[in-house]
């Protein structure tokens, strides 16, 4: 690994690294934390995307928003006008509006002050940070799914497209929050932020830089290196076996989709250049497993555990599953699969 890259990686926070891996792998990410820290996580991610990576960022609270409000809130001015609206779009206070006003309405109010434009040339932000999307109604989640799949949305004023490296980030309302099935499957990674890891951007403990720590060209170069990272036949078989063992685990009811396997391969390859490697060793596959599957895995219950079909005692099964967590299931599967030498 280049010394310069290594030094810069050491300076990143945990949330910075999560965003970097998402950008390199091209996978969207869900962030979890305890409920009282979700606002801090949102603000830290917003500052990380804008300061560390120099990306246009839109923040929207989805808990009480409509489809139209959601669509408006994720739009930013075209590059020519970016400097005038680079402020935090999720804050009504920054626009001199009442604190209780939803961010989407605040954005709309700020635009209409300048009059109505006949040509709406706004673009979707490079990064959309959607907080409490799990609390949004089915129509808003369906709009988010359509945005991720097609990389465009339609509003009352026209069609708006995303950039090539578009990233959709969700800050969940609580650790066990879940999105709708198909939307959840579109997210390649998840990450749980612990309070002790802190919020260096929000707290001001992170060194300020005049330019982004990672430019678009550098991220593009890391993405190319990830694409070229080699998986040997043995490691590819190991990756496949992990997915198979996950599906067959007695502790798993569902959630292990074919899309998840593709995401696992993409994240494992994205980790290679960050470790100075041009190949993917088994250790990076296991690291990727811990990031790709936690938000997907649906644990078995006392009513769905498979050994009940062959006469297991329901009371014993219920007692066994009482203390089993998603992390326990992942470690059990990883330990069950033979690692290639």
What key attributes describe this structure?
single chain; 341 residues; alpha/beta; Rossmann fold; Helicase, Ruva Protein, domain 3; 2 domains; five-stranded parallel β-sheet; two-stranded antiparallel sheet; 14 helices; 44% helix; magnesium chelatase activity
Give a verbal description of the structure:
By secondary structure, this protein is of the alpha/beta class. The chain folds into two domains: 3-222, 3-Layer(aba) Sandwich (Rossmann fold); 229-336, Helicase, Ruva Protein, domain 3 (Orthogonal Bundle), CATH 1.10.8. It has helices at residues 3-10, 14-25, 38-52, 67-73, 103-112, 138-150, 181-184, 200-203, 216-228, 233-248, 258-274, 282-292, 314-321, 326-336, and strands at 28-32, 57-61, 75-76, 123-124, 127-131, 152-155, 158-161, 167-171, 187-192, 252-254, 298-299. The protein has a five-stranded parallel sheet with strand order 2-5-8-1-9. A hairpin with a 2-residue loop joins strand 6 and strand 7 (158-161). The longest helix is centred in the last third of the chain and has 17 residues, at 258-274. The protein is globular, with a radius of gyration of 21 Å. The two termini are 23 Å apart. Its EC number is 6.6.1.1. One of its GO terms (molecular function) is magnesium chelatase activity. Pathway: Porphyrin-containing compound metabolism. It is an enzyme of class 6 (ligase).
